[in-house]
Amino acid sequence: TELREIRKLVDICKKADGFETKFYYNILKDRRIPEFDDFFYYLNGNLVGYLAIFCFKENEAEVSACVHPKNRHQGIFKRLFEEAVDELRRRGIQDALLLVQHGSEPAETICKHYNATFAHAELEMTSERFVEIPDLPLVELRDVTKEDAMELARIDAAGFDTDFNKMVYRFLSGM
Known about the structure:
By secondary structure, this protein is α+β, with helices and mostly antiparallel strands. The chain has six helices and four strands, in the order ααβββαβααα.
């Protein structure tokens, strides 16, 4: 139910703003790690604000949020964000990346208010036609098992400079 409400709110914001706020729906649909990562703001039983924390590194969080266009400039984001910052402090996480779409006036105003500095940009590219790439090796997809946790933690630690033991725990608790 909550995931449907989030998608509905994101769709409303997308129609009003012209772009979609980035949420990792694959993570949202199956949150299993025992941390407080989702913040909801309801008015009259309707979801009008939502903020999500995504921790891919042990000392850094990504933060995505959206507020219904009719309910902006009412302090909803501020309330959600303050709760999220308190939670991040409780966990000892010092850095938060605010995911902001280029050209988002509300998000850019918020970033200025909090004296946020630009960290990096991501660009999504999609091919409009099928591209055939010859001589690719065969790739087999399978479900991850607990036996894969050590290797996944090793890759994560090497690629993202994370603590190996914490990553083993994170992978095992997420399965």
